[in-house]
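Hi X.,

You mentioned you wanted examples for the new student's onboarding notes, showing what a folding record looks like when two proteins sit in one file. Here is a clean example. The first protein comes first, with its sequence line followed by its structure tokens.
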Amino acid sequence: MRPFIINRTLLRIAELLACAILAALVVILFAESHPVKALPEYAALTGESCSVCHVNPGGGGPRTLRGLLWAARNKPIQIPDLPAILLAPDVQDGYEMYDIACAGCHGAKGEGSSAISLSGTGISAAATRSYIFRGILPLGMPAFKGQLTDVQLEVLVKFVTGLGDGTVSPPPDSFPLAPAQLHGKPAQPPTKNEGN
């Protein structure tokens, strides 16, 4: 009886091994293989920083509209421009514009993250406007030309220069909310006549 048990075990192991080899062959034969490049290589290839295509300035994670279009076009050497698309339609508040356009790289309080600190720098309004409008490509800062309205550009310049000269306080870590006030009556169970 003992040889029968050993033979059955060996047969089972051989079956499992054959299934694993077959599965590996199917994956190799039917999976599309594309050469993979790391994000820094894409940045070098396109001449753009990772923050042009990704919401996270270090790359990876969700893509911006330009990044989605670039990927949809099979990642060409040049990243497509989106001159007619606003970054944040209808937003005209300095804090909110900064949070949308700048905080990902410069930090929520202007303390610097993957880009330079803006707090206490004393950068002039004219230089700030130019940097936002044209970008600083060698440093990885994208240009926002065509992505902001004139009003948005001005409130953003005012906010960033205010961070730089200390006239604007950075946003707080949290915003206190009042306790919730619930109004209404509890639901009444249906009567026998309503349930039918």
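Then the second protein repeats the pattern, sequence line and then tokens:
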Amino acid sequence: MDDVKRRAYRSSIRRGDAPKLICAAAHRLFSTKGYLATSIEEIAAEAGVARPTVFTAVGRKPAILKAVVDQALAGDEAPMAIAERTWWKEALDEPDPVRSVQLHARNVCWINQRAAPLLKALEAASTADPEAALLWQEHQRQRRAGMASFVASLATKTTLRCDEQTATDTLWTLVPSAYLRLVQDLGWPIEKFQEWLADVLRRVLIE
């Protein structure tokens, strides 16, 4: 655990704060070290809590991973699906197709700024851990459903350049792969990526 900066153990921590601290610590560690290489002991040390507190406050490592992924995707701890979020519905409800695509690109950037490194770790873990594999499969299913929902909405506002399944496949393929390659690997500013993504989607999807 030499590469983990230990935080002082705080025995006086409020019980209600433990889940938030644990999830924040796990997010940092999963994103940098990977899920499989991160231990419960490291999560506890990073969060500044006792090891048993990790289990009582959040659960086993797969439960922690699910909680961290859910929070990263949604942006907070509120028990509300992304499809019900105001910022997500704004893109679907926007009547102008070009502006709708721009808002979708914005939403994609918001999600990936929070979750892309974590999802990369989850995908890697899914090849070796059955519970991580189930979580990854469910994430892929939900992500595809979200893309299909946006495409169906866009199809009511304009003529698409391709059928809805192909459009959904295109959205599903681009993100988070393009985000990881351009923003993380090549260092594109997020503003440049968002503008590029909106332009690509407009050219690919809209007649």
